[in-house]
Amino acid sequence: MKSIPRISTRGYYDLTTGKTLKSNSYYLYPKKDFKNLFGTKELTIMIHGLRNNNAGAMAKVSLAKNRLRKLGYLYPVIGFSYDSNTTGAHLIKHAKRSLAAGQIIAKKNGRHLGKFIEDFKLVSPKTKIRLLGHSLGSQVILSTLEYLAKKKKNCGIVDSAYLFGASITQDIPSSKKYGKIIQNVLDKKIVNYYAPTDEVLSWANNEKYVKGPLGLNGAIGKPVSKYRQKLVKPKNHRFASYAAVLNSFS
Asked: What's the whole-model pTM score?
């Protein structure tokens, strides 16, 4: 199997607490493959959710790549792989602690992905970058935009972002703070694919682990103009199910 190019921060965070273990920016694998991406017209980065080890992360990139190919998208699709396989995530009794650690790690990873985007755009300024995030990956995207928003030169640096089964809260697209970040950092739009039938988000909402997930019922309030949302009916919360109901990528 051909190796999938990925930006990785595996091993940078403690899987039980979310504590920082390494302060490096990121590493690229295989490094030589990234040189081939310079000068490409577009690039999509897939960011996985909770309970994914490195193999799981790569499987999500393959799923995204195959679905986008079917929709006529022929540009490179690469992965962002981070420590989301937090301790005890598969056990109900540890679910809350595990999700909390995952959220801490996802927030911290905004700096890493943001730094990669800045570095890549320095070498390949005309490449459009799209971000695609599933579940907890939506938090990585939000934190990435927040990191990039700190510098004026990053205005419009990311072309667009796409969220599937997003675990961030429903007030974000209309909030003063994040609304401004979305408007400034994204050149075109952020699209939220939401599903009121999503069993995992529904459970997280009922248990108050995530209060009002954006991916469950869409946004509340008056979202900013670059925000879009689409109602979808995936079979379940898995990324494969969301990819199956994606019918366009523009």
From this structure: 0.96
